[in-house]
Specification:
Layout: H1 2-6, H2 10-19, H3 23-43, H4 49-61, H5 70-78, H6 82-95, H7 107-115, H8 119-132, H9 135-148, H10 154-170, H11 175-185, H12 191-207, H13 209-215, H14 219-231, E1 239-240, E2 243-244, H15 246-260, H16 264-280, H17 286-301, H18 306-319, H19 325-338, H20 343-347, H21 350-355, H22 362-375, H23 381-394, H24 397-414, H25 418-432, H26 440-450, H27 455-468, H28 473-492, H29 505-517, H30 523-539, H31 545-553, H32 560-574, H33 580-583, H34 594-603, H35 607-613, H36 620-629, H37 652-657, E3 672-677, E4 680-687, E5 695-704, E6 710-718, E7 724-727, E8 743-750, E9 759-767, E10 770-778
Antiparallel strand pairs: 1-2, 3-4, 4-5, 5-8, 6-9, 7-8, 9-10
Helix pairs in contact: 2-3, 3-4, 4-6, 5-6, 6-8, 7-8, 7-9, 8-10, 9-10, 10-12, 11-12, 12-13, 12-15, 14-15, 14-16, 15-17, 16-17, 16-18, 17-18, 18-19, 19-22, 22-24, 23-24, 23-25, 24-25, 26-28, 27-28, 28-29, 28-30, 29-30, 30-31, 30-32, 31-32
């Protein structure tokens, strides 16, 4: 009693703590008061126990330790006085959780309080159970909560429904207990109880297929409830900003979305209602926008009519014109998800989407960029690329890489002409060359090399761009390569497609020397420039002494690769000058993937060569090679499998390649599709090298038929301990949209015991602005992979 009298009241404690000028003073006050609280607990003062615990809870909220008050919470909960129970239950919710065994001690007290007829006490017990109830407590008290679901008091019913939601989340197998009361609770007129009931049914349907089937019979009743809400006039009790109980409307729409997914009959029942909600909801306030957005999500998730889906896309289009940035962001994200299934409807809002690129908010402009890239097709590629290039010139640095890569992918996929493709790529390199993908240089040189009629045009464009700016390294590399290959066309000065450009040999050499001497040039760029100078020695008609001097200078360069190249070129000048013109000829025109890769794959017997052949091909010739090796999931559209080689020693091909006689190869192992989601598909193809029967080569091929690129794609694999697994580097981390170039990765698995193979895969990637992670096991591998 002495300790109680000397301690502060709660209001005085709060005031004294607030008046503390330093952290040390605050700690001193709290330590002193905690000592009084401990002393009071030891004395067992029943009259002031709830006051002491209330002060301790305030100390706990400030971040100081208060664990010594846990047992006092149990004593107060067991007290018959309501003032004690109120503070005791509050303390239990703050100080107890599932990690502490003490919380199990209040199970009997909660059970006793739930069986009492006092509504306030029942409410306290239900709140504590829904906040801290563990799985064991939920199993023990489920029947008590079920009885309270049909109590006459709406106050108790509402709290019992929310407690049932917590129980279902903790212990999904309790679903059968709460199914019967839900049907009666749907006739409830109290909006709070009805909202809790809809939430409970939603949890049941998400966790139990049997419950989903059971509640699909109640779709007409849910439709009637929602229609009543929509048609009801203004109510001071439930209306918010002129919308009748938007919280209840949103929750019903979410439940309808679950019930109508992949179910034709339920979807047909709610079609008319969704159209009514979409057309009659007031959009001048945020409450109406929330209801409309849930309506759009429901329309897109169920099997709705085509006209209804167009209406939903138009609603999202109106959201793009809203002044609220959050609403515009939600609209862009939703349209990005719909662009694959409703491409034509989303295309109608392309001008508005392009306008969103100029948003100062970085998150909005990023979403608008992703959606703009997904909207590019063969009919609008010129206009969309022009808009995206304008955005690239002024976009923030963190968006330049995504924008530049997206423009290059779109140009490669939908280019109307080769010249347009070259011009577009050059403009991207000139604007954001340092942010393009690593393969941009190789792709552009391949494109220019394959367009023989544009060689003169390309070399002039690149020379002019290089003369203006040598800071963009990919552009400098392509320009140096092109000048080295087609420098003679640059000096001719005759090109109908460009303005007359008179260039002297000395100017070309001086420009390349400037690139070599620039501090901005990377070692790889200097290598391109040095090779270009060497090639110009056979294309220019003047004296080569200047070129020889420059090359000889780099014979002592600190960069080993550049030094080696210069030494080899010097040797070519000194000892093999008669062969220089033949060695430095123009690169012949080859298709992408090339016959050389084809020939190497045919001659390959080693595992390493097989692993290199898998990810290379990109064009029809390469796809034929992959079909020959059975590294893809099936033959391409026009690829024809060649007839088997003649194994006799007299065969012309065998004689040409000087290969030994060999028995016919074993039958190919069938491919296997192991994953498919939203257009992303994963296929496995298998090869067992004849010389190493315990080795299995698995090529993982990822293809994407959706409207958006799959980025940051990572595939990881695991096998049992008796196997040895080696993952080769993938061909890329982006799977282009709409059936673009597949991404491949080779797995080398050694199976010395020839045991049945089990494979566990983990996929992580970004798709339509969302991060996805999938973990699954592959147990149905063909027996040919391990026998």
């Amino acid at each position: 009693m002495v300790a109680s009298s000397s301690s502060l009241k709660l209001q005085d404690l709060i005031q004294e703590i607030r008046e503390a000028k330093t952290q040390a003073q605050e700690r001193e006050v709290i330590q002193k008061e905690c000592a009084h609280i401990r002393a009071s607990f030891r004395d067992g003062d029943p009259l002031h126990r709830h006051r002491q615990l209330a002060k301790l809870l305030y100390v706990h909220m400030l971040g100081y330790p208060a664990h010594f008050g846990q047992m006092e919470c149990l004593k107060l909960i067991a007290s018959p006085r309501f003032t004690d129970k109120r503070v005791g239950y509050l303390g239990a919710m703050l100080l107890l959780d599932e990690r502490q065994d003490a919380h199990l001690l209040i199970t009997n007290s909660i059970k006793n309080d739930l069986s009492q007829g006092i509504q306030a006490v029942q409410g306290l017990a239900l709140c504590t159970l829904s906040a801290t109830g563990s799985a064991e407590m939920c199993r023990d008290l489920a029947t008590e909560v079920e009885k309270l679901l049909l109590q006459p008091s709406a106050y108790v019913r509402k709290k019992a429904v929310l407690t049932a939601v917590h129980m279902i989340r903790k212990v999904p197998e309790l679903s059968n207990i709460f199914l019967p009361p839900c049907a009666q609770l749907l006739h409830e007129h109290h909006h709070g109880v009805l909202l809790g009931t809809i939430t409970l049914i939603t949890e049941l349907c998400e966790r139990s297929p049997a419950a989903l089937k059971h509640f699909r019979k109640m779709v007409p009743q849910l439709v009637h409830i929602l229609r009543t809400l929509v048609t009801t006039g203004y109510s001071t009790e439930h209306s918010i900003s002129g919308v009748s109980d938007p919280f209840l409307q949103v929750q019903i729409l979410r439940l309808l979305r679950i019930l109508g997914r992949n179910h034709e009959e339920s979807s047909e029942t709610m079609n008319d209602l969704l159209a009514q909600v979409a057309t009659n909801t007031d959009t001048s306030r945020n409450a109406g926008n929330a209801v409309l957005f849930e309506t759009v999500l429901t329309i897109m998730d169920i099997r709705s009519a085509a006209g209804l889906r167009v209406l939903a896309v138009n609603i999202l289009g109106r959201f793009l014109l809203n002044n609220d940035r959050n609403i515009r962001y939600v609209a862009l994200t939703s349209l990005l998800r719909l662009v694959q299934s409703d491409h034509s409807a989303v295309q109608r809002h392309r001008p508005t989407v392009v306008e969103c690129l100029r948003e100062p908010d970085g998150s909005l402009s990023r979403r608008a960029l992703e959606l703009s890239l997904a909207l590019v097709n063969s009919s609008n590629v010129r206009a969309m690329t022009q808009e995206l290039q304008g955005f690239l010139e002024s976009c923030p640095p963190d968006l330049q890489a995504d924008c530049a890569s997206g423009i290059l992918l779109a140009a490669e996929r939908f280019a109307p002409t080769k010249r347009w493709h070259i011009d577009t790529t050059l403009r991207v390199l000139m604007t954001a060359g340092t942010h393009v993908r690593d393969d941009a240089v190789a792709n552009l040189t391949q494109l220019i090399g394959g367009a023989q009629e544009l060689h003169a045009y390309s070399v002039r464009r690149l020379y002019s761009a290089l003369a203006e700016d040598i800071s963009q390294q990919p552009l400098v590399q392509v320009a140096a390569w092109c000048i080295g290959e087609y420098g003679d066309l640059l000096l001719e000065g005759s090109c109908e497609e460009t303005e007359p450009l008179q260039v002297e040999e000395e100017e070309v050499l001086a420009l390349l020397e400037r690139v070599l001497q620039s501090h901005m040039s990377l070692p790889a760029t200097r290598g391109y420039a040095l090779t270009a100078l060497m090639k110009l020695s056979t294309r220019l008609h003047g004296d080569n002494n200047r070129i020889r001097q420059v090359v000889s200078v780099y014979g002592s360069c600190l960069d080993v690769e550049l030094q080696q190249r210069a030494v080899e070129y010097n040797t070519l000048f000194r000892k093999y000058d008669h062969m220089r013109a033949a060695i430095l000829e123009k690169i012949p025109l080859v298709e992408r993937g090339g016959s050389q890769a084809d020939e190497e794959a045919k001659e390959s017997k080693e595992t390493a060569q097989l692993s290199e052949a898998a990810p290379v091909p990109t064009e029809p010739q390469a796809s034929k090679l992959l079909d020959l090796l059975d590294l893809l999931d099936g033959p391409s559209g026009d690829a024809q499998h060649p007839p088997p080689l003649d194994p006799t020693p007299g065969g012309a091909l065998i004689h040409l390649l000087n290969l030994p006689c060999a028995p016919p190869p074993p039958a190919p192992i069938p491919n296997l599709k192991v994953f498919e989601r939203e257009g992303l598909q994963l296929n496995l193809s298998f090869v067992r090298p004849p010389g190493t029967p315990t080795l299995l080569l698995i090529t993982v091929t990822a293809t994407n038929t959706s409207g958006g690129d799959v980025t940051h794609f990572i595939c990881q694999a695991a096998v049992p301990k008796s196997f040895q697994l080696q993952l080769q580097a993938p061909s890329g981390d982006t799977v282009p949209a709409q059936g673009g170039l597949p991404t491949t990765q080779l797995l080398r698995i050694l199976n010395p015991k020839k045991a049945p193979l089990r494979l566990k895969l983990r996929l992580t990637y970004n798709h339509f602005g969302q991060s996805v992670q999938e973990i699954f096991e592959v147990n149905n591998l063909p027996v040919e992979t391990w026998q």
